[in-house]
Amino acid sequence: MLLHRILAFLVASFSVLCMSFAAPSSSPDYVGRKCERIYVHKEWRDLSVKQRLSYLDAVKCLQALPPTNPGQVATSRFEEYLGTHIAVTRRVHLVGQFLPWHRNFVNLYTKELRHKCHYKGPMPFWDWSRDGDNEGVPIAQSPIFDPVTGFGGDGVPGTYTLPSGNLSTVNAPRAYRGCVMDGPFAASNFTLHLGPGELMTQHCLVRGINETWRVGMTSEVLNRQLDLKTFDELRLAIDNSTVPGMHWITHSPIGGEMTNVWSSPSDPIFYLSHLNLDRMWWHWQKRDLKKRLREIAGPTTRNGTDNVGLDFVLDYPLLGPNVTIRDVMDISKEPNCFAYSY
Ligand SMILES: *[C@@H]1O[C@H](CO)[C@@H](O)[C@H](O)[C@H]1NC(C)=O
Ligand SMILES: *[C@@H]1O[C@H](CO)[C@@H](O)[C@H](O)[C@H]1NC(C)=O
Ligand SMILES: *[C@@H]1O[C@H](CO)[C@@H](O)[C@H](O)[C@H]1NC(C)=O
Ligand SMILES: *[C@@H]1O[C@H](CO)[C@@H](O)[C@H](O)[C@H]1NC(C)=O
Ligand SMILES: *[C@@H]1O[C@H](CO)[C@@H](O)[C@H](O)[C@H]1NC(C)=O
Ligand SMILES: *[C@@H]1O[C@H](CO)[C@@H](O)[C@H](O)[C@H]1NC(C)=O
Ligand SMILES: [Cu+2]
Fold first, then answer.
1. For residue 230, is pLDDT > 70?
2. Cα(25) to centroid of ligand 1, in Å?
3. What is the three-state SS of 180-238?
């Protein structure tokens, strides 16, 4: 029933959004324009320690900001991002609009950190290949999991039990090793109210770092995917669990909520890992930029027969205006306005 509550609420807020924009389904007038400033995103460990701490503070700030639609399940602006992701999950994964939808989703979040939480440093991505190529060093020892200058470490066994009830939206129960007990998002400091999956429970941030996925984190495996010739091949490869594809690598090595296709944005690392997936897509686009600024493919619904095109509309209830796939293809133009340092 709780799920119905949030869906009903999203639909209601949605109609309000519709009324406030004059031309439904057309993009805001600034899209496609030249950017006033390009924000250069950097790898987490290329940020100074001061920048890392200031980024973590900004995330804490977003988690302390009230939701824009109070009185609902989401208790903070941070959780509204999570709630919207849960609500639209079935429409934006394993479909042609997956990469474009997430490019703008993460970009809206970065704008929020900048404008509402006054973060001034570079937006960080997590380049997993730096850990994948770092043979002999366990993933859990990546600086991103540092308890002071990172997002805290692995889940601690015995500190979390999955709720009873319908677990059909908990993809990988074994990956829910335990609560994160150190760092800025430790169980003592951070409580979530949405997830796992479509359930709505109060819980800690759950992780279960899994070395098995390391085979997909090396630059060799990543480059093989970037060598693919068409967007359709790329999109199928990144979601292929046997490669294992880059979208699996975005989530599965971290485990816990990150393995959940609905509630993965519970983990603040989601945004760094997905930004890296977007960076991989941009690297692929850059290899034949003129053509690939226009290349998109895949069904509009899971296993559907209609294919996406550049005019396909991407929607972000409670988070931002609708845009089209065309609008997000070029990261150097509005509403994107960013670049990657490498
Ligand atoms: C945004 O897109 C959704 C899905 O295509 C559509 O239902 C909604 O009416 C659009 N909203 C606006 C404000 O155009
Ligand atoms: C469990 O949830 C799924 C997805 O929401 C639903 O399709 C399924 O019917 C539910 N199963 C039961 C036994 O309620
Ligand atoms: C780690 O990942 C492998 C590969 O998907 C899986 O078989 C295994 O169950 C996972 N282990 C845990 C503890 O999640
Ligand atoms: C946890 O929260 C307390 C106050 O609620 C604060 O003093 C402490 O610095 C926080 N710890 C971390 C690691 O953020
Ligand atoms: C995944 O990749 C494997 C190995 O390349 C291939 O055999 C398999 O058909 C692919 N699966 C899908 C669903 O594309
Ligand atoms: C899509 O098709 C695959 C097999 O090709 C199947 O495993 C999956 O359940 C289908 N998904 C949906 C949402 O129907
Ligand atoms: Cu997603």
1. yes
2. 6
3. ECCCCCCCCCCCECCECCCCECCECCEECCCHHHHHHCCHHHHHHHHCCCCHHHHHHHH
